[in-house]
UniProtKB/TrEMBL annotation:
Keywords, ordered alphabetically: DNA-binding, Transcription, Transcription regulation
GO molecular function annotations of the record: DNA-binding transcription factor activity; transcription cis-regulatory region binding
InterPro entries assigned: Homeodomain-like_sf, HTH-type_TetR-like_transc_reg, HTH_TetR
Species of origin: Actinopolymorpha singaporensis
Designated name of the protein: DNA-binding transcriptional regulator, AcrR family
Length: 205
């Protein structure tokens, strides 16, 4: 027999989602400088006291934003396609498609973070969490290339991961999509070719 969620729990979850949505909206439209507990409460239509029932500080609010944005943009589903690829070269190409379909959705928030990360501890912590996860994914790709004996010299798993990470940053994506007006499909296709040419050796006979 299906269970019914208590009204209080459902209402609490809706409020939390509204607060996180308001946080993202402020970052995208007004920048990190405008992000305060009061501004989030006002944007979400709740009292300032209500926000503290969910997030004891601005730091906790920003920390929760990473998971909220990842879920909203379909990070798990997008990455699942990368890890399900039949071999390492195919995984690299799927990684390029992942960047094109997922990363472009986060550019506005990334820009807001980059502007203040040296002066705002919450922004710096958010950036560090996101970057650490991305580097771990790049290392997983590089390790798979090495395990399948497809990583050409002079690359090592460590240096290949570092270069994959650098090629996956917001600066690269934004330069092509925003500045040069590339479509997501063009970004995925050309980046996939670049990654394959750089990091995949010929198959062993």
């Amino acid at each position: 027999m299906p269970t019914t969620e208590p009204p209080g729990n459902a209402r609490s979850r809706r409020t939390r989602q509204a607060l996180l949505g308001a946080t993202r909206s402020i970052l995208e439209k007004d920048g990190f400088e405008a992000l305060t507990m009061q501004s989030v409460a006002d944007r979400a239509g709740v009292t300032r006291a209500a926000i503290y029932l969910h997030f004891p500080s601005r730091a906790h609010l920003v920390a929760a934003l990473s998971d909220y944005m990842a879920k909203a943009a379909g990070l798990s589903e997008s990455l699942a396609k990368v890890w399900a690829a039949p071999d390492a070269p195919a995984a690299l190409e799927e990684w390029a498609r992942h960047l094109a379909r997922y990363h472009v959705r986060l550019l506005a928030v990334d820009r807001a973070v980059e502007r203040v990360r040296r002066d705002d501890a919450d922004a710096a912590a958010h950036r560090a969490r996101v970057r650490a996860a991305k580097l771990a994914n790049c290392r997983r790709l590089a390790d798979r290339l090495a395990t399948e004996d497809r990583l050409p010299p002079p690359w090592t798993p460590a240096t290949a991961a570092d270069m994959l990470y650098a090629l996956s940053t917001s600066d690269v994506v934004e330069s092509l999509v925003a500045d040069r007006h590339w479509s997501q499909r063009r970004l995925a296709d050309h980046l996939g070719r670049l990654l394959r040419a750089s990091f995949v050796s010929a198959a062993s006979p």
